[in-house]
## 1
Amino acid sequence: MVQALTTLEAELGDRDYFGGEAFGFVDVALVPFTAWFHAYEKFGGVVAEEVCPRLVAWAHRCKERDSVAMAIADPHKLYDFVLYLKQKFGAK
């Protein structure tokens, strides 16, 4: 997971968005995965802010857009859902 996040961060570089100055298709495709950052930390100890701070900053920029803010899953609800699935299926 850390390798995937650092690879994405390297591709983002110092740009505001993956396409440069403007929010684009790659941003639309990737931003939903940022809702999982909380679960990564709770289940795997991967703290996104430490591993990929520029990617986290990008996620915050994206969430400032109304279209993204209204569509992205709540990270805590997503975490609760994963807990439910773990309990339902007996995963450890």
## 2
Amino acid sequence: MAGSKRVCSSNQIIYYPQMAPVVITLVSDGTRCLLARQSFFPKGMYSALAGFCDIGESLEETVRREVAEEVGLEVERLHYSASQHWPFPNSSLMIACHATVKPGQTEIRLNLRELEAAAWFRHDEVAIALRRNNPYTQQQNGAFPFCLPPKFAIAHQLIKEWVEKPIRFTLPV
């Protein structure tokens, strides 16, 4: 009887809230990571790829499908990192993974229905963005600097892991 629930006062039916599983994946080619942005992101912000799990799909299948759908790349290996509840807008469970793409297959084929932009970023570029104070502040020339999700987001943690330590990818997909 533990857990979140609501009981209807008129008929005593118990309702349990649903949670939607979402994979969030930081893709790497070994030396660079792939980050993308959606049009509603703050200007200059790039993040890891993300997408909802379909019914009957494993996490590995979801990672492979989402990466292929959004940027046209084939995942070679993946590694689970962590998870985070994300309450808004639909109560999601964010399941964070690192993935590598097949060697020599790094040409991005952007799905403009899903993303506004995607690009490969070098380690030094990402490390600088992680250290930046006030990342969403417009520069004097009117441009917005390359920035990353806030520290409380699991995407930020994925990116930070990639910068701070090499990930050993052990699960073939």
## 3
Amino acid sequence: MPAAAAILTNSSASTFVQPAPRALDSYWVGLQRRQQERKRVMQEACAKYRASSSRRAVTPRHVSRIFVEDRHRVLYCEVPKAGCSNWKRVLMVLAGLASSTTDIQHNTVHYGSALKRLDTFDRQGILHRLSTYTKMLFVREPFERLVSAFRDKFEHPNSYYHPVFGKAILARYRANASREALRTGSGVRFPEFVQYLLDVHRPVGMDIHWDHVSRLCSPCLIDYDFVGKFESMEDDANFFLSLIHAPRNLTFPRFKDRHSQEARTTARITHQYFAQLSTLQRQRTYDFYYMDYLMFNYSKPFADLY
């Protein structure tokens, strides 16, 4: 079998998955090379900065964001604001829980219990799946992901993020906040949100929507077989579905899950939000996400960053 027609799915088991016939042209070969390069960059960053990770034992906490699809032997680490809602829809169709991704509502995706998490299995079940299933994650440019999370959680009515995060942020970082703002937690501005993010003594804890990918998915401890990117979602997703022999009629959905009338967060929109910050705040935010920039080979979003 030509090297370009195979992809290593688990380095510890040294097993190969033969892609479906449609994968055997130069287009798919190019996507496979892209995968090999992404894995190489990620592993080099881990070797340089996380030397001790490979010797640590995997605990349930490390796999708490990983969803399991047993039929096609897939493990998907959820990175919020990087296509996770639609990926969970795809997993539900793969598992036979729905006939089409368009039939699955947002609340079913996020608040239902249809998909199992890896940490719900016993230790043997966790280790068996980690060593034999195809493990994948999708990432996104860190500043864009941060702005996307801010817009979603703070610029729209939200019965959780406004009272839990908004009230604490406004009380700590807005001088002379109005009584109404302190009562509702609504109206948090992006610079105030970034102040909270960078504060080592945060008044309220971290959240998965803006936590580092390196903490959510432990890629230096778990050897992911496939690293997709939000920026090349369609190509990467359909390549992955080909590799796992998904039904031919299943493709990654392109619809926007929430606030569908609103423009997606782009690099241009992200720059508009970061223009509200000082040079030092931008630098400190870059430092905060430095490992994500390094591991997933994203370039510096501003020329004055070092």
## 4
Amino acid sequence: MTIFHNSTFPTFLLTGAPGLEWAHVWISIPFGCLYITALSGNFLILFVVLTEPSLHEPMYYFLFMLSTTDIGLCISTLLTVLGIFWVNAREISFNACLSQMFFIHLFTFMESSVLLAMAFDRFVAICNPLRYATILTHTRIAQIGLAVITRGTVVLTPLVLLLKCLSFCHSHVLHHSYCFHPDVMKLSCSDTKINSAFGLTAIISTAGVDSVFILLSYILIIRSVLNIASPEERKKAFSACISHITAVAIFYIPLISLSFVHRFGKHVPRYVPTLIANVYLLVPPVMNPIIYSVKTKQIQKAMLKLVCSKWTSYLTVLLP
């Protein structure tokens, strides 16, 4: 068996759907539809927020950031996932694998940070509405966006560099159709205790800490809403949070499940982590535009206005 030392990095083999290789072409159809839905929906959100002046508010700036991270997450996995299902292109070089892994985890951590920022936005809007405009200024929102990118990059850079210090002499077959840190780490024949500890620390210090603060924000929000005398105002306050709560749930539940399966589920069937991984990467980008389009009247109005203006322009050209 060949041992790949630090100076010679292996070529990994990605995995599509274990045991269902004969159906890869058929499986690619729903996957392709999900990617098209996710990319078109999030690009539409970006376009609407940019072009509609009534949406130039903190809440929608954070929604813009969320859609940007969802697009980045989709693009990071698009080529390898569809490449496997369409033409069985399973090989990926070590450096390409590390690059893909970096961006997948970067956009994941960024999405977690943006969801925390959105929770803070709802907290200020409901608990301290009179100071909303002075707290969430354009400058502060830009600073939050920069902090989101910086934190993800700082946490992930050493995580990736530590993988370069490992030797690989086991099977080079990964269990997903993209490169995932615990998956790559398991293929090493070196001592990976430091890598494992650092990876767990990275998850806890980003998504773990973010989830705690999101929960704390909603505890304070609920306490504030319950102090509102008017039932109508209570309902209005709670409805303003439904979209964000749903987005948090569809992001954190698959993420936590995938992390636990990789670290503690040594005896689970092979298809379980693969299924959870696909849900973890595709469901949030697909669902977030739908959730915010359905639940947010301002987004609905802006999209309807956009469609009407496009149809008007089209009919003007056809019927001068």
